[in-house]
Amino acid sequence: FNRRLRSEGFEPGVYYDAKGKNVAVQVLRIPLEKIFSKVKTSRVFDLQINDGGAAEKKPVLIKEVHYHPVKSRIDHIDFYGVDLTLELKIQVPVEVVGKHKGAIDGGVLEIYRDMIEVSCLPTAIPESVVIDVSELGINQNVSIRDVKLPEGVKAVFEESFAVVGVSAPSGAEEKAAGEAGAGEGEGA
């Protein structure tokens, strides 16, 4: 069945929601690829479901995408129906902007988390969480508690953790330790 469906330009999928409703869906491949490139997994859009001749629009998120193991195309997709009046938890990508101060001394920017889990209404989901690193020097970082989130969006975390940081250039710690050890030997 799925092979015939794909030969006709469709991809199989499933629509489901928190109330336990599951509906098998068929989505045209080209519009699916276009919408996925725009919304990814963190933007709400309307999915039109035709069930027995009755069309119904449902606000959804793309919950999971399965790719073909060889061909570069979507093989199956899961849509999650959202209630626009209830907050949900969702992973949002981190976007780093600015050039860190530590770059002058050879510091290396490290991204510890490329996604942050947030809680908000479905219509308030940010496209990304933007973190400006221009004030970071070597051995400094930005913690989740320091991240400025849009109004109505809060980070979901059990403890504060570093999201991005600037580390010393490789070999700098060993060089400093070697110089300190050499200085101690001279005074003895």
Overview of the structural elements:
This protein is of the alpha+beta class and 188 residues long. Helix content is 18%, strand content 43%. The strands form three sheets. Strands 2-1-5-4-3 form a five-stranded mixed β-sheet. It is elongated. The termini are far apart.
Strand order, main sheet: write it out: 2-1-5-4-3
Class from secondary-structure proportions = alpha+beta
Task: Write down the overall mean pLDDT.
Answer: 84
What characteristic shape results from the CA principal axes? Answer: elongated
Oligomer: single chain
Concise description?
This protein has 188 residues and is of the alpha+beta class.
Topology:
Layout: H1 2-7, E1 10-17, E2 22-28, H2 29-39, E3 45-51, E4 54-67, E5 74-81, E6 88-97, E7 108-111, E8 115-120, E9 129-132, E10 140-143, E11 154-155, E12 162-167, H3 172-187
Parallel strand pairs: 1-5, 6-9
Antiparallel strand pairs: 1-2, 3-4, 4-5, 6-8, 7-12, 8-11, 10-12
What keyword list fits this structure?
4-stranded mixed β-sheet, 12 strands, 43% strand, 188 residues, disordered C terminus, elongated, alpha+beta, single chain, 5-stranded mixed β-sheet
